[in-house]
Amino acid sequence: MRLPIPGPSDVRQVLDRGRDQLQALVDAVPRVLALLDAAEVVVARAAVALDRVEAVTRDAATVALETATVVDLAQAEVMRVAGLVERLAPTLTTLLPLAERVAAATGPDDVDAAVRLTNRLPGLTDRVEHDVLPVIDLLRSVAPDLRELLDVSRELNEMLGHVPGMGRIKKNLEREAEESGEPEASGAAER
């Protein structure tokens, strides 16, 4: 096997190809530098984006922690309300038909009247305490006297019934009452 020995034309060809490749390499240097600059810009923008992602992640963790706290508080309130509802359920079930009847029978005029009554309650309470209750206390002390007066009037009525001629007057009064249509007069005459 024979080895080829390069000649001057082979060396020239190798140099021409080396010069073309060197020229292509030199021509590629500005493009490589431009790509490197672009890569640096992309890396800088990626670093900013990464910082923003980290900030959003921290904020999301804070919000998640606060949300967990709110959920815990809400669960405690739900448990408290559930206990109240459980205790009130029998009473509310009993009152439901009454509430439905009141709701069906109540109109705007009724609500207005209830509001007016509520607004007047303080004055009514004051009047009852200062005007009505003292009169009731006075009536309690007068009641025995009224009973005695009633007994005396009954005795007087009985005595008048025994007076001669009173029966005829009584009949005349009854007849006049029947003619005039006043049933009260006959009852008054009997007394």
Number of helices: 4
Uncertain stretches: 185-191
Biggest beta-sheet profile? none
Tell me the number of structural domains.
2
Return the average pLDDT rounded to an integer: 86
Q: Structural class of the secondary elements?
A: mainly alpha
Which bin fits the share of residues in helices? over 70%
For the termini, the CA-CA separation is 169 Å
Would you report the number of β strands?
0
The sequence of SSEs as H and E is HHHH
What's the shape?
A: rod-shaped
Strand content: under 5%
What is Rg? 58 Å
Structure description:
The protein folds into two domains: 98 residues; 85 residues, no CATH class. The chain is rod-shaped. Helix 3 runs antiparallel to helix 4. It has 191 residues and is mostly helical. The C terminus is likely disordered. It is built from four helices and no strands. It comes from Nocardioides marinquilinus. This is Ribulose 1,5-bisphosphate carboxylase large subunit.
